[in-house]
Amino acid sequence: MFKKIKNRITILTTTHYKASVVTNEDTNYPDYHDRKYTHTNLIKGVIDDLYSKIGDDNLRHIISLDHNPDSKGSNEYLDNLIKLSEDYKNLEIITTTEGIYYSIRNLINSTNTDYYLWWEHDWKFVNKINLNEFISLMDKNKNVNYVRFNKRENVVKAADTQLWTTPHITEMDLLRTTCWSNNPYVGRKSKMKDWYKMMNETKEKFSPTIEQFLQGKMRSDIKSMGIDKASSDWGVFIYGNYNDSNMVSHLNGKNK
After folding, report:
1. Bridge pairing between strands 236-239 and 146-148
2. What is the CATH number of the domain that holds 74?
3. Under 8 Å CB-to-CB from 41, ≥6 apart: which residues?
């Protein structure tokens, strides 16, 4: 079943050395005691868990390292990422030295599928997930461009300052939201390229993480257009319904 989606969706991961080191206390990752994976224990555990949860280890997976060539740790991390990739038939490593904005952009431009699963280096699904359902949803609904997996219950909280149901979409429970985030989500490549074009053309200053800029623009449109028109234009949703439990868990590599 999953072989059918290999040409439809790509896994994209950003990483950087300072948020990727596993300490002596972090013994819950596969092969923790294997010195072969020095500096990559965290991301290896994330990769193995992700492939298990989606039921597929054959999807193209691109990891982009936000690299500092003047850092011994970052150079070691890159070397070990390359070694790690040799153990997976589908894994590719790319780099940038210009920051996270370019790391994300380069990942999007390296994608040759309609959709992508955005998966930073320190997350895991709580339960198994069927990516076919998201591909089918987005094939049928051209105004669904981004479906985020929430790290908490689906309630009004933090950047999700408002939530709305989606009566016009029947294939899957989704909530419209005020939040655009780099937390795990399934995205439409063509729309992300449109958003990057908008960022490239603007004279405004925006956070290099891109979240603050896109979230601000989306909220401005919601305020001026109303949620129905803005949602149709942006197509940003949270997976599930009100009060549904979290779909993902943040391992928070920067604290490791």
Report:
1. parallel
2. 3.90.550
3. 22, 26, 29, 31, 32
DSSP letter at 160 equals B
Q: Once rounded to an integer, what is the mean pLDDT over residues 29-40?
A: 54
CA distances 106 to 97, 111, 187, 214, 254, Å, are: 11, 9, 15, 18, 22
Q: Is the pTM of this model over 0.70?
A: yes
Domain that holds residue 219: 2-255
Structure tokens at 147: 């479906």
Q: What is the pLDDT of residues 160-173, one digit of tens each?
A: 999 999 999 999 99
Burial bucket for residue 109 (CB in 10 Å: 0-12, 13-18, 19+) = middle
Strand partners, 248: 125
Quick: pLDDT tens for 191-208. 999 999 999 888 676 667
Please give the full DSSP string across 5-65, using - where no structure is assigned. Answer: GTTTEEEEEEE-GGG----TT---STTTT-GGGTTTHHHHHHHHHHHHHHT-S-S-EEEEE
What HEC string does 166-227 produce? CCCCCCCCEEEECCCCCCCEEEEHHHHHHHHHHHHHCCCCCCCCCHHHHHHHHHHHHHHHCH
Structure tokens at 239: 């997976």
Rounded to whole angstroms, the Cα distance separating 110 from 177 reads 28
How many CB atoms lie under 10 A from the CB of residue 209? Answer: 15
Structural domain count, the chain: 1
